[in-house]
């Protein structure tokens, strides 16, 4: 996996948005959607749309965000 993507896994993130479902990406048995900052539009990471195996650390609806892209975090939300 791209090292830049190693960051934090979040269950809830605010001030972000994803693109339309047509632009979701399939990687292995996961479906991902890119996540963008609402205020500056930067690509922050991905949201897991579908995860085949529910026993994995990540589940559908979770976010994986690049740590260095986050200006502030408290474990639940981004304040940009
Ligand atoms: Zn931003």
TrEMBL record:
It comes from the Eukaryota. This is Yippee-like protein Os10g0369500. It comes from Camellia lanceoleosa.
């Amino acid at each position: 996996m791209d090292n830049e993507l190693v960051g934090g896994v979040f269950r809830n993130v605010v001030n972000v948005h994803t693109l339309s479902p047509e632009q979701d990406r399939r990687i292995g048995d996961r479906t991902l959607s890119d996540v963008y900052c609402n205020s500056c539009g930067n690509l922050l990471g991905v949201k897991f749309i579908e995860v085949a195996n529910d026993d994995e650390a990540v589940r559908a609806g979770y976010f994986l965000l690049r740590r260095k892209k986050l200006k502030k975090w408290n474990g639940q939300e981004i304040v940009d």
